[in-house]
Amino acid sequence: MSFKKKLKLLATVSIVAILTLLSFNIINGYSYNSKLKQVEKFVKLNKQISSLVHQLQKERSINALFLQSKGNYAAELIFKQRELTDKEIVNFKKVAQSIQIKQFDLNLAKVRMQITQFKVSFNTATDIYTKTISNLINLTTLNSHIAPAGVVSQELRAYSIFLKSKEQLSLKRAYLSSVFLSRHNLTNTLKNKIKILSIKEDIYLDVFLNNISTQIAKFYTQKTDIDLFKDAKKTINLMTGNNSTQNNELEIKKWFMVVSKKIQTLHTIEKQILEKVEREINPTNTLVLLSIVVGLIFAILILYLGYLINQELKRRIHAMDWIVEP
After folding, report:
1. Which residues of 206-216 are buried (b: 16+ CB within 10 A; e: fewer)?
2. Do the beta carbons of residue 20 and residue 322 sit within 8 Å?
3. pTM over 0.85
4. Given this model, what pLDDT does residue 45 score?
5. 3-class SS at 200?
């Protein structure tokens, strides 16, 4: 191969190599951006799951009050709550269909009828609602698998764990609801259940705080560093302690109210956490689009530069002035 051809080949290979690398970067950027777009849709689904789970948790506790009192307590409240839950079910189905998510059974008609007719026990009804809630929370983990590896993926996994922590607290309220109207002390069996749920709640919360961004962790700490959370933990420890013998009706009702307020506060926090994650996705999305545009501009410039170099080589080769020594 002559020196002329080698020179032209070197210029061509260099340009092709640079264009290839730019193409890979553009393709990767487009793929990353597509995943982020998908994640944005699932974050919207997570918001709806959060609202639906919260209403199901409230309905589960009201069911316990209704069943224990044989309909004398929460008779009107239970039907109002069912309407609120049904509204969130409809909203959830709309969002799930819009992103083509395979849905599972959310038909509560049968168990609701059994509750109304007192043909189901508290434990059975609670288990049905708990399974439904668990399925919904597990659905939120889809985001972490779809999201590109990085901060967003990690925070979405942490968010799902946060929901599991809140669910343990909500289950404690449901069990507490079963003795809300009772004048008897908490049984040792119920105390043990609540202790186990408290341990699981703390474990999930630790995992959440260890996997969330410093900004969101600080935000959570600020929101929960209030007397309400301190009182809830103190009251639970006192009422489930081995030496506790004063779990009277008044104390149980006080505990119930404290736990309910804490759950409502956590629900507000979980919505704010998702909003913060959304704000982190948007700048990332913008940077990816910017990198794609810059890559395309560089590719066009390199092609143009390659064209100019090729024309210059042709001119010099034709004139043979490139071999003239100075």
Report:
1. ebbbebbbeeb
2. no
3. no
4. 87
5. helix
